[in-house]
Design brief:
This protein has 77 residues and is an alpha+beta fold. It has a single domain, classed as Phosphoribosylformylglycinamidine synthase subunit PurS (Mth169, Chain: A, 2-Layer Sandwich). The protein is 31% helix and 30% strand. A three-stranded antiparallel beta sheet has the order 2-1-3, covered by helices on one side. The radius of gyration is 16 Å and the shape is elongated.
């Protein structure tokens, strides 16, 4: 068994009001020095040896991420 991690983030330049709201709250909380904040999703999968990276890419493109608005990154371990 292996572990796959898929991180999904908004594409650069996409308006992300949730992240902007959290960023403002961080700044108001007194934590200084945070330049920017981006909200994303992390999917951790336990997979068999027969699951290929191309299958995970298809899964991310078709189900886990919106390819118009989001990018994703796959890490296998």
């Amino acid at each position: 068994m292996r572990k796959a991690t898929i991180i999904v983030r908004p594409k650069a330049g996409i308006l992300d009001p949730q992240s902007q709201t959290i960023e403002r709250q961080v700044q108001q909380s007194g934590v200084h020095g945070v330049q920017s904040l981006h909200l994303g999703k992390i999917f951790e999968l336990v997979i068999g040896d027969d699951v290929t990276e191309s299958a995970l890419t298809a899964l991310a493109q078709d189900l886990l991420a919106n390819p118009v608005m989001e990018d994703f990154e796959i890490t296998l371990s």
